[in-house]
From TrEMBL:
Keyword tags: Signal
Source organism: Flavobacterium reichenbachii
This protein's name: DUF5666 domain-containing protein
Residues in the signal sequence: 1-21
Top-rank taxon, per record: Bacteria
Amino acid sequence: MKNLKKIGALIILMTFVISCACTKGKNAVTGKVESIENGKDGYTAKINTDKNEVYFATVSIVNVGGPENYKRFKEGDEVSVTGEIWKAENENHIKVTKIVSVK
């Protein structure tokens, strides 16, 4: 009986851990850069999508795979990025792992 309780508790714990890990996903964001805030090893770009959603995109040399993949956005650029999306309070964030395009 003790083993059954332990196994049940383990299954519940694993289900919780997996469900929390799945809330972060690799996704794409495309939109217009509204503003730029410089940081220590990169910057955060405020991107407004066609659906009027706002994402705060953290772009750093390390996260995009090195200086050869790093690009500096300017206000007004139309950009497409992929990365890890999460929500903090009422804000959408994306840690950019790939810059797909900048126009």
